[in-house]
Structure formats: C-alpha cells, structure tokens
C-alpha cells in the first residue's frame, strides 16, 4: 500500500468548504518536483506553470473540501447553532463528535446535541430529528465563555472528528472525507508514478487541479476550468458505494470491484467518445471497471463539461461506503486500480486523440 500514508494525512486533514487550508498543506508537502500554484479561492494547480501553448491540455480534477458545518450563532447556554456546508442528514450528525475551529486556527472538540430519552415524550420518540434542531456542545455554559475562553466566533468551520484507520489484512480503509481526499491522493499518485520527465515528454499538457467548495455547488471547478482551459478532463471522486444498499445485479459502485466510470448523474452526461477511450484502456490494462448511470448526485464534471467551448469529461469514482457521514469505508485496491488505469491511459494518449474535441464542419 504505497500511498497509504498520503491517504491517511489527507483524510485526517480538516477542510470544510472554504476552509481547505490543512488540505492545501498536505498537497504542498507531496507535490514532489512539480510546480504548485494557488489562487484566491485556494484552488491549487499542479504543473500548470509548465503549460505549453502548442499542446492540448488534459486536466486531472479532484476537490479538497469535505462536508461540514459553519457556526451560525451562539446561544445563551453556550451551544453553537450550525449551518450545513454540504449534504447532511440529522441522523448522520446527531450525537457525533466534531471539531470546531477557533480564531487562533486551532480546533476544539464538540458533540452534536441529542435530547436524552428521559426527557422525551412518546410522540417525540417517534418523530424524526430535523437538522436545524441540532446544536454543538463544546462543554461551555455561556455565550461569553465560548467567545472569550474558547475563542470561537460566528463563521468558524466545523468538521467531523474522525481519525483514519486501515485494516492491514484486507486493505480496507476507514476515515472521514474520502469524498474526496481519495481523488486528491489519486491525482498526486498519478503525477508521482509518471514523474516530471515523463510528464514533460507527453504530447499534451497534464495539469492537476485541486478544487475547493465542491460540496456547496461545484464552485471551485468553475474557476479551475476557466483558468486551465482544458481540452479534456478526468474527474477523480470518492463516489457512494451501493454494495450495502443494492443487489449485486443492480449495484454499480461496489467496493473492491474497481473504478466506477460514470455515464450520467444529475449534473452531466458523459462524453460517450471519451468514456469509450477509458473502457478500451481498462481492457488493455486488464483492470476491471464498473459502469454507472446515477439518478442523483454530482461531481465537478457538472461544472467542467460546460466550461469554455465544452469539455469532454470522464469521471472515475472510487466506491466509498457511507458517504457524507463521519465514518467512510473504502478499499485501497480500488484506489490503486484507479491510479494504474489512469497512468496506462495517459501513456497511450496521443495529441491526435484530442481531435474529437475540435469544432467540425459537417
């Protein structure tokens, strides 16, 4: 498990949407000999400084943020009211441990409130808890204590308090933010596997774009796409696994069954031509992939594919159980297969293969 330490460092990093600074630091520490640039939104660009205007450009996309919350208000009892940053359910957040950032950039632990069963009526016990009913308790007793002693103010980010774990026997990983630190790690691993000399020798520019604020509307990818102006893109994602929710016949993203190649979700329809190229590469490399047509959800492909004059995008997902919760489970083998497939695909890609992205006269 060559990249397990990288995956651990990325998973443990705190990075609510708009507050991805810890993730930026991990990417910077693992950029190797490639150039890395940061824009005003904290989006990162790997190898972008080496862009050759005479070559087409392929962008490897991933997003650095994770689902979290923001402190919206502080009540008189010292409890924190929360505003969700990304998709949460109350059932996933209630009674769970979180970390809240202070104004000096440190983090303090908190727990999402839960009314004890002793104080609940029979009707309350049957009623689902709403997300807006939850507050965070850091162990304070007044609003003044929260502000003056803990240094927590309105607008501070909140993230799950979960530590990474790997089962060495079967290669299963458990941690937070696999959506989408798996993708961030995949981009870094692909560049590392190729190396600076091989990347420079490619007949196209290869740029790694690490986007921010995906969980709140694919915002960072709008900026990275405009800046990079790619002719094609591959999106890496930690996609929801359905092996615990659907039968083997209907499942399209099962753990340990290889990368998930997406054909449709609520934000885009994939390029059939580009997807066919990925399928051909998987067959040549002997790497099993899973084909998925999703009813809902979305990735940065939703922003990228309509950028500039239209961008063919392939989405490779690494199946992840229990997405948008504190504890996600994923297989290291699916991560490695995604990296290996992408490296094999890029090595065989030619400048002529980008011809299908050009405007054609009929």
Automatic annotation (TrEMBL):
Residues bound to Zn(2+) 1 are: 63, 179, 237
The protein's matches in PANTHER family, at most eight in alphabetical order, are given as: AMINOPEPTIDASE (PTHR32481), AMINOPEPTIDASE YPDE-RELATED (PTHR32481:SF0)
Cofactor note (record): Binds 2 divalent metal cations per subunit.
> In the UniProt record, does the keyword Protease occur?
yes
Its needed co-factors are:
a divalent metal cation
Q: Name one GO biological process term.
A: proteolysis
Q: Organism, per UniProt? A: Aerococcus agrisoli
Kindly identify the residues recorded as the active site: 214 (proton acceptor)
Binding, Zn(2+) 2:
179, 215, 324
Q: Which domain of life is it from?
A: Bacteria
Do the record's keywords include Hydrolase?
yes
List UniProt keywords, sorted A-Z. Answer: Aminopeptidase, Hydrolase, Metal-binding, Protease
Q: What Gene3D superfamilies would the database entry show?
A: Peptidase M42, domain 2, Zn peptidases
Molecular function terms from GO = aminopeptidase activity; metal ion binding
Sequence similarity: Belongs to the peptidase M42 family.
* Listed name of the protein: M42 family peptidase
């Amino acid at each position: 498990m060559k990249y397990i330490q990288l995956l651990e460092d990325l998973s443990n990093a705190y990075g609510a949407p708009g507050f991805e600074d810890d993730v930026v630091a991990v990417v910077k520490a693992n950029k190797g000999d490639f150039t890395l640039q940061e824009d005003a939104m904290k989006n990162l660009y790997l190898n972008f400084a080496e862009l050759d205007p005479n070559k087409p450009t392929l962008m490897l996309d991933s997003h650095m943020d994770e689902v979290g919350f923001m402190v919206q208000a502080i009540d008189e009892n010292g409890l924190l009211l929360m505003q969700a940053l990304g998709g949460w359910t109350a059932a996933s957040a209630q009674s769970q441990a979180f970390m809240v950032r202070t104004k000096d950039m440190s983090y303090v632990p908190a727990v999402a409130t839960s009314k004890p069963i002793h104080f609940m009526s029979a009707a309350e016990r049957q009623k689902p808890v709403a997300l807006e009913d939850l507050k965070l308790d850091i162990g304070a007793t007044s609003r003044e204590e929260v502000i003056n002693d803990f240094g927590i103010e309105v607008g501070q980010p909140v993230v799950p308090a979960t530590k990474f774990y790997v089962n060495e026997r079967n290669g299963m990983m458990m941690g937070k933010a696999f959506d989408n630190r798996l993708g961030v790690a995949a981009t870094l691993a692909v560049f590392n596997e190729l190396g600076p000399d091989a990347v420079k020798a490619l007949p196209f520019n290869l740029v790694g774009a690490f986007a921010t604020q995906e969980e709140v509307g694919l915002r960072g990818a709008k900026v990275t796409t405009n800046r990079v102006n790619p002719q094609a893109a591959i999106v890496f994602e930690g996609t929801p696994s359905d092996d615990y929710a659907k039968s083997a016949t209907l499942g399209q993203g099962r753990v340990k069954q290889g990368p998930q190649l997406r054909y449709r979700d609520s934000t885009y329809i994939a390029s059939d031509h580009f997807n066919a190229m990925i399928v051909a590469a998987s067959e040549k490399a002997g790497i099993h992939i899973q084909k998925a047509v999703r009813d809902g959800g979305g990735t940065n492909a939703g922003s990228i594919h309509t950028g500039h004059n239209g961008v063919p995008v392939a989405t490779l997902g690494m199946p992840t159980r229990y997405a948008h919760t504190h504890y996600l489970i994923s297989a290291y083998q699916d991560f490695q297969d995604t990296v290996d497939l992408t490296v094999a695909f890029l090595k065989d890609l030619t400048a002529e293969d980008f011809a299908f992205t050009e405007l054609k006269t009929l």
